[in-house]
Amino acid sequence: MKILLLSASPVIPANNGAKIRIFATNTILTRRHEITMVSVQEGGAARPAVESTPPWKDYQVGYSISHRWQTILKSCFSRYCYGQVKVLDSTYQAFVEELLKKEDFDVIWLATFNMTPYFERCIQGKYTRPLVLLDLHNVDEMYYGSFIRSDVSWLVRLYAAFEVMKSKRMQRIWFPRFDAILCVSDEDLKVTQSYLNGHTQAWLVPNGVDVDYFMPAPYPLVSPNPAPVLVFGGSMDVVMNQDAVRWFVSTILPILQKQIPEIQFWAVGRNPPASLVELDGKNGVRVTGTVPDVREYYRQADVFIIPSRFGSGTKLKAMEAMSMGLPVVSTSIGVQGIHVESGRHLCIADEPAEFAANVIELLHDRPRAARMGVEGRQQVVAHYSWEGIVHQIEDRLSELLQDRQR
What we know:
There is one protein chain. By secondary structure, the protein is of the alpha/beta class. It has helices spanning 17-29, 68-76, 82-87, 90-102, 119-123, 140-148, 154-174, 186-193, 239-259, 274-277, 294-298, 316-323, 352-364, 366-383, 386-405, and strands at residues 2-7, 34-42, 47-48, 57-63, 107-111, 131-136, 180-183, 201-204, 229-233, 264-268, 285-289, 303-306, 328-330, 347-348. The chain has 2 domains: 2-208 and 385-405, Rossmann fold (3-Layer(aba) Sandwich); 229-383, Glycogen Phosphorylase B (Rossmann fold). It is built from 15 helices and 14 strands. Strand 12, helix 12 (316-323) and strand 13 form a beta-alpha-beta unit.
């Protein structure tokens, strides 16, 4: 197959969930198919791949990105949603149009809902319409809906409600126009199917993990830390991860410190804002910022925690921690879309007191924590390996192409 993939950002470095999903998919598909990727790159002109990029044809099209508040303001007066306004650019559009004049593709793959404004440009003037696929990393109406149900400021909830309204409208217009939509969770699949007609197929394609990269330590580690360590990992320039850190530090950590005063909490991830950096070194909190290899920090976790309250889709951090054999305590949102059994593969708790109680129990009962780590690893290997997930996509795309040729 000859596939054109349109992405809202370059995938190297693969340092957030969306980039990891695209990188893993491309890496595996490139072994048997011809992949061309065009991504939005802040600043500069269109340029081809450089030596450090992986073995697919890669173009990065530059544009001047607006400040977040400017994008929010623009989106308030646009029919498009925030994420679409953020990447909508005439330079990128012209580059894609020129590329499509020169080459024909079997499949056009839009990575995330943000790229849907380019749909028409991908098929106009084509005698034989390519298959057009949408990889829906999360459902926008569900993502913004999670803010409405939270205790954030009324202004954030108001803007989120506005985005939900626009998201529903855009989904109603765009979803039925695709040949296939990839959904990462059962919840996302159900909502997506409610917008579809008989033409568009919706596939459950969960996020995965590189189970050979995120391996348990080859031998029991002797922790260099004198106190128990809790680790949370994720890109700290993402609002929902920032909220998770603040919520944990303000509501759950004080409960834990009453019983284990020396306990430590590490927030591991790139680009923390100043408000999180200020927490570093206070009350047992460590904010690492960008690190060369998150595994070195994860391995020091006595318990890996995911105190997420917002978002949709699935969180790769949960599968990475489970793949490493770590005992995990998470909110329901933190493991949404992952088929796990609380108390066996990990512990799920949404209330602060219950969350803290699960952490304390795993810290005190290390044999149970070890068993949970083993069970979690086995579940991920069996159901969430990227190799198996991408092969399923490949098979279904081949079937769609064959059906079209009959």
